[in-house]
Amino acid sequence: MRSCLSAASSAGTASPAPSSPKREETEPARGGGGDSDYEVHSDEELPFRCFICRNSFTSPVVTKCKHYFCEKCALENYKKSTRCFICNTQTNGMFNPAKELEAKLARRRSDDEDDDDDDDDD
Asked: Where is the composition biased (Low complexity) (predicted)?
């Protein structure tokens, strides 16, 4: 039996080395079009409308993948799917209050009211 193995290996017919496990591509292709287009990276980029209902936020929440929804919309979507509505990342039902978004919306409202007050001085 030993001679069969040595003959096979010397003839160049040894079995190939096991291939490395295949990895799933985690970064989107260059040039845009990936899920990162919907991620919020700075205060200036915070959205003003819910991606699900397309209305102004009511009780905004943020997912661990940094997407913003109305609390009601997020919970209703969670009943259908445990994944993020935008990027399909598993949320595990974790929706945190979006305090920075609420603060920005409050600032925007106060700025709008200040602008309205200025128009009344005519």
From this structure: 1-17
pTM over 0.70: no
Which residues on adjacent β-strands are paired with residue 62? 68, 96
Beta bridge pairs of residue 49: 56
- Partners of 83 in the β-ladder: 90
Per-residue model confidence as pLDDT tens digits over 69-86: 999 999 999 999 999 999
- In whole angstroms, what is the distance from residue 39 CA to residue 86 CA? 9
Phi, psi of 115 (to 5 degrees): -65, -40
How far apart CA 69 and CA 61 sit, in angstroms, is 6
Query: For residue 3, is it within any domain?
Result: no
89, 26 Cβ separation under 8 angstroms: no
